[in-house]
Specification:
globular; 154 residues; 2 strands; mainly alpha; two-stranded parallel sheet; 11 helices; single chain
Length: 154
């Protein structure tokens, strides 16, 4: 993941919104609920505009584990760079990105084609960060076709 979205959000979000997020998070002692509140706060970054309501419904049904998330972020997200080893992958790769993603900008997702020329890259023009939710049927069809074409080699 690129952390460019933090900069974009910081430029777009009024300070009072951030204060409201902190207030909402302080209203609960449940870490998982705090994570959900944060996730919903940033949902406009994760989902395309046309999918905001459905996206919120999906997020509210996800089971969160704040401690696991924090451990993952602390352990590698800040310094994780897969560019150094991606070109070594010999198995079929399917990279799917949302054209309206404001978390991992499409220009960064497209780098897979340069780093790993054998990768199959597909951009869902009208999806945000979660094309597998926003365009479920197309996503499943693309993945199933890829598995069929590549013979499911692993």
């Amino acid at each position: 993941h690129s952390h460019d979205w933090l900069q974009v959000y910081a430029e777009q979000a009024p300070k009072n919104d951030e204060a409201q997020l902190k207030k909402d998070q302080e209203a609960t002692s449940n870490d998982d609920e705090k994570y959900l509140i944060e996730f919903l706060f940033y949902k406009d970054l994760y989902f395309s505009e046309r999918f905001q309501d459905e996206g919120e419904r999906v997020l509210r049904n996800v089971k969160y584990n704040a401690k696991l998330r924090d451990a993952i972020v602390a352990s590698y997200m800040g310094s994780f760079d897969c560019k150094k080893t991606l070109h070594e992958i010999s198995k079929p790769i399917l990279a799917i990105a949302g054209g309206l993603d404001r978390v991992v900008f499409p220009k960064h997702a497209r780098e897979i084609r340069t780093i790993c020329p054998k990768a199959h890259y597909l951009e869902f023009d009208r999806a945000g960060h979660f094309p597998f939710i926003e365009d479920r049927e197309r996503f499943n069809s693309v993945v199933n076709n890829f598995i069929t074409i590549t013979g499911g080699r692993s």
